[in-house]
Amino acid sequence: MNETKPKIVIVPCSGIGKPYGTVSREAAYQVTEDDRPEDTQLIALSLLVLGDEEARQAVAANPSITIDGCKLACASKMVKESGGKIAQEFDVLDVFRRYRDFKPKGIAELNEDGQKLALALSREIELVVDMLSSSSNPEGGSNA
Amino acid sequence: MTEFLETKVDKFTFKVATDRYYNAQGVWVLKEGSVARIGLSDFVQQRSGDVAFVDVKPLGTALTVEDEAVAIETIKVTITFNSPVTGNLVRINPAMESAPEVINQDPYGDGWMAEIETSDWEMDRAKLMDAPTYFVQMKQEAEEEAKKL
């Protein structure tokens, strides 16, 4: 019997008009599409806002990583509202404080620094993904 | 207890603390003895956005009015603010290094930026605005900003 491996949910900011929202989404794409597609799934914040049942079930059943683009923290709030448990909250502004040289500009298309910031953020997210994956994987040393 | 003048422009509410003076950039000055504590008005912090970094001139820097005293970097812009008073910079709020977002959270309280030992307060004060005067200027600026939205 094939059992579907649970995937860590990544919920980025859905804000438009500010580069930090774009950074959050670029980082989420990097993780879910390029670097950790087997371990993660991207859930659109708008689906949670709409109350989409499939999206709500996904966050309720799996650990979530949220990426907020501003202090309103919509992604984190909506995951909690949807009954999800957040394994790690990321705030793009906090990440920027760690990588001051990467000043993001552009909205539809990030400048080079913005892309570097998104990549740096994705690396931090992947560390959390790897930790969560190994702790839920019997071969990774867990008692589960 | 600090009291405020308050106005709502579009969906934003802006407060001006009445117990201090302001320069044209919206830098407030609260005088205690010979020391002037400085910070940013509520309108300036809201217009600037979430503060990521604050660079205050080094301790001991001799400032005159209009000398650049502080630069803030937000998610939107980098802005420099001039000293509203003449004197020596004697204290920097440690939170400017560790938690600069306090400017957004509490602009008139814990979000103060620095303290300056004043050397010509009476002269400086004559160039500053009291709260009601700044409130009028701030409201005009806020309404101009709202038109751009």
Structural notes for this entry:
- The complex is a heterodimer of chains A (144) and B (149).
- Chain A is an alpha/beta fold.
- Chain A has helices at 19-35, 45-50, 53-61, 74-81, 92-98, 112-136; strands spanning 8-12, 40-42, 63-68, 85-91.
- Helix content of chain A is 50%, strand content 15%.
- A four-stranded parallel β-sheet of chain A has the order 2-1-3-4, sandwiched between helices.
- In chain A, α4 (74-81) links the parallel β3 (63-68) and β4.
- Chain A is globular, with a radius of gyration of 15 Å.
- Chain B has 149 residues and is of the alpha+beta class.
- Chain B contains five helices and eleven strands, in the order βββββαβββββααβαα.
- Chain B has helices at 42-48, 95-98, 102-105, 121-127, 131-148; strands at residues 4-9, 12-17, 21-22, 27-32, 35-40, 51-56, 62-63, 68-74, 78-82, 87-92, 114-118.
- The mean pLDDT of chain B is 95.
Could you give a short account of the major beta sheet of chain A? 4 strands, parallel
Query: How would you sum up the global shape of chain A?
Result: globular
Please tell me the overall pLDDT of chain A. Answer: 90
Q: How many angstroms separate the termini of chain A?
A: 19 Å
Number of strands of chain A: 4
Class per helix and strand makeup of chain A: alpha/beta
Question: What string, H for helix and E for strand, traces the elements of chain B in order?
Answer: EEEEEHEEEEEHHEHH
Roughly what percent helix of chain B?
A: 25-40%
The secondary-structure element order of chain A is: EHEHHEHEHH
Main sheet strand line-up of chain A: 2-1-3-4
Radius of gyration of chain B over all CA atoms, rounded: 14 Å
- Count interface residues per chain for the largest interface: A-B, 9 and 8 residues
Q: Which regions of chain B have little confidence, pLDDT < 50, spanning 5+ residues?
A: none
Structural class of chain B: alpha+beta
Alpha carbon gap, first and last residue of chain B: 35 Å
Helix content of chain A: 40-55%
- Report strand % of chain B: 35-45%
- Shape descriptor of chain B: globular
